Structure formats: C-alpha cells, structure tokens
Amino acid sequence: MNVIERCRFLAGMSEDPGNLTRTFLSPPTREVHRHLGDWMRSAGMTVSTDAAGNLRGFYAALNPGAPRLLIGSHIDTVPNAGAFDGPLGVTLGIALVEALAGRRLPFGIEVIAFSEEEGVRFGIPFIGSRALVNAVDRSLLATADKLGITVEQAIRNFGLDPDKLPEAVIQPKEILGYVEFHIEQGPVLESLALPVGIVTAIAGQSRLDVVFRGMANHAGTTPMHLRRDALSAAAHWITMVEREARTAPHLVATVGSIEAFPGAGNVIAGEVRMSLDVRHEDDDVRRGALSRMLAGAQQLGAERNIEVDWKQRLDQASIACGSALVATLEKAVAAAGLPVHRMVSGAGHDAMVLAGWVPAAMLFVRSPGAISHHPDESVLPDDVEAALHAGLQFLHLLEAHHA
Ligand code: HGY
Ligand code: MN
Ligand code: MN
User: Fold this and answer.
1) Does ligand 1 come within 6 angstroms of the Cβ of 152?
2) Helix/strand/coil (H/E/C) assignment for every residue in 297-308
3) What pTM did the predictor assign?
4) Residue-wise pLDDT tens for the chain (403 aa)?
5) How far is the CA of 294 from the centre of ligand 3 (A)?
6) N or C, which terminus of the chain has less Cβ within 10 Å?
C-alpha cells in the first residue's frame, strides 16, 4: 500500500461505525498501532509505545549514539474526520525510511504517531506531544472525560503505566529537530495552485468551555418578558463572537459545540454549555479579542439576568518556525524542483509543542477544496509524491551536513 492507501486503510479503524472518530487511546488505536508497527518494522525500525500511548519507530543511525531526527504527527481524530489530518505525517515518515532501503545515515530517525493532538476526549489537546516535553502534569492526568474517566485511567486502561511517563521525554541534545508533514487544511495552496508550503508560523489558540445559566421554565406559560432563557442569550453572544472575529484580518473564532439543558422543545433552556476557540498568529490580537468576547458575554448576562461562567482549557502561544532546519527544508523543496511558498498555519499542530524544545519544521500538502475535519478531506497523489521527494531531499541535505 502507498501513503494514501495506508491513510485510507487506517481511516477504517474508528470508534463510530460509519464514520472516522478516533480519540485518545480508544480501542481502534490498538489496531492502528498494530498496522503502523508492522510497516515500521518492515522498514527496519524498532517499535515501542511510550506511557502516553505514542507509537515510536526508531531507525538507527550508522553510529550508535548519533543524534536523531523526529518525524511525526497524530493518529487521533476529530469526530467524523477525514483520513489524512495526522496519519499523513506518520505514513510519510514511514515511507521516507522505507525509501532508504536499509541505508543508514549519520543520524537516526524516529517516526512518532502521537496518541492525541485534537483535544476531543478531554478538551485539552497535545497530550501525546506534551509527553515528549515533560508537560503531562498531575492536573492533566486528573482531567476526566464525559464518562468521568481520567487521562491517567485511560492510560492504564490501554495497558500502559503513567509512572513511566518520564521515559517518554526527549533529551534535546540528542535531537536534530522535528519535522511534520501535514495537510494544509485550508485554501491557500489550492488557490495558488501549489503542491506544498513551508510553515513559517503556527497561530496561537485559546480554547474555553463557556456556560450560560438562566432558568428553565414552561415554554407555553412563561411570558417573554419574564424569561431567563440561556439559549437565546447564547444565540446573541455567538453572533457577537462572530462580529468580533471579523474585526481583524486572520482572526478566527468558533463556537463549535453547544448543549442546551434540559433540552426539551417545550422547556425554556435553563443552561447552555458551549466551546469557544479563538486563534490568531499574534497572541495580543487573539487575547484582546477573547477578552472583548468574554466582556460581551458578561454584558449580555447582566442585561438578561443570565449567569455567565467559563473555564479556559488552553492558551497555546503562537510559534514562529524559522530555524536552520526550516531553511534546510526550504532548500529541499527547491531541490525537489518545487516552488517554495511560505505560509502561516491556522491549525494547531504537535510541532508547536515540540518547537519549545527542538527546532521544528512543517511541510504542508495541498488540501483539495480546502476541506478538513470532514470526511471529504483528501490529498492529491502527485502532491504526496512531491512531499515525499522533498522529504528525501531533506534527508539528503541533512546527511551531507552531518556526514
Ligand atoms: O484544531 C486544530 O488546530 C488541530 O486540528 N488540532
Ligand atoms: Mn492535525
Ligand atoms: Mn485536526
């Protein structure tokens, strides 16, 4: 199977029959590990699973003790996902090692399938890559999902030992850097008719849980002026969030999930629980917009006698990707005969977690129709070939540099 066939094959491993949903260490993850592990071993890698559930394939260097290059991405998905967001970066990493056909380099290669990047199950993203930078702390381990299962328990349920998390941590002096191949998940490369793009920065993101509390009451007997309707207040606030997000270029804000309680058609909603996701490559712009959105919620609450509460789940600073590693990736793209286009990522990636510890570089692959986080997400075979070619040039340039 080629890279695309492998991604589509893995997409059949889901916790929801009929669509692709694979959250942190859910049962289908074990099947994905089995197939990735087989492909890694047949490419000459030794395979292990760390205490955060990251599957790690190691391709030894010519000389023991040489540094290693990390190539990775995530294998968890959003609900009803596409086949390529995450798995493309892992299967491309394996394909690069396969292309070496047993030839050893002056550095090792570690291909990593991160266990969790989307943040779907626990509301906190990057659990897999956080383990590599020693950022899975007690409070994260104690975070519970909707069923009350904590991250720690999910790790144990998968047969892993959270006490071994320190063994997952990388030593920066042993690492050349981290490179992640990823679909762009946006319209830029397609609009420019380009196959690949070099990521120069990854937008920062704020993720919150927001609650509006009014009072449930009878839909038929409660006059409009006597209501404390949490859902109509939330509706006003969501349009306020959208209006605020339109005030600055590249600023985006999304209320992606909303639950109304008690959730009956003949009962005024007494409580509404929403998510809020705000992003921008400039952290001041993002945080400024967020504080105006929250002030707007409080203003609405005061006007409508609605209690407003929120819990910040994530404040992930934006990162710039400008290391020598990125310059080498640019040279590799040019050496592969491809146009070099630099761009910002609106989506978050494991690279932003690792960038705090080691040089990180990302190569985007065009997303046809700019569709992602959707079953129609796809990639073009020629673009995957181009990414593979650039990846091999990248290894070649690193080899020359470290010979
Ligand atoms: O939401 C994101 O930015 C990514 O898909 N985790
Ligand atoms: Mn992704
Ligand atoms: Mn994603």
Assistant:
1) no
2) HHHHHHHHCCEE
3) 0.94
4) 999 999 999 999 999 999 999 999 999 999 999 999 999 999 999 999 999 999 999 999 999 999 999 999 999 999 999 999 999 999 999 999 999 999 999 999 999 999 999 999 999 999 999 999 999 999 999 999 999 999 999 999 999 999 999 999 999 999 999 999 999 999 999 999 999 999 999 999 999 999 999 999 999 999 999 999 999 999 999 999 999 999 999 999 999 999 999 999 999 999 999 999 999 999 999 999 999 999 999 999 999 999 999 999 999 999 999 789 999 999 999 999 999 999 999 999 999 999 999 999 999 999 999 999 999 999 999 999 999 999 999 999 999 998 8
5) 25
6) C
Measured from the CB, is residue 348 less than 6 Å from ligand 1? yes
SS3 content of the chain, % helix, strand, coil (to 5): 40, 25, 40
The DSSP bridge pattern shows strands 108-114 and 68-74 to be: parallel
Taking the C-alpha atoms of residue 255 and residue 3, their distance in angstroms, rounded to an integer, is 34
398 pocket-lining for ligand 1 (C-beta < 6 Å) = no
The neighbour count for residue 365, using CB atoms within 10 Å, is 25
